[in-house]
Amino acid sequence: MELLQLKYFCDAAETQNYSKTAKKFYVPTSNISQSVKRLERELGVELFEHRANRIVLAESGKRFYEKVKTALESLEEAKSEALGDSDEMCGEIKLLIFCNRRLVTEAIESFKKQNPRVSFVLRHELEADIDYDLLISDTCPPDCAERYPLVEDEILLAVSKSNPISNIENLSLKDLKDERFISMPRGRSLYSITNSICSDAGFTPNISIQTDDPFYVRKYVEMGLGIAFFPSCSWEGLFSDAVAIRKIGNYTRSTYVCLPSARKVKREVNEFLKHLSALTRSNLK
Question: What is the largest CA-CA distance in the chain?
Answer without folding.
Answer: 73
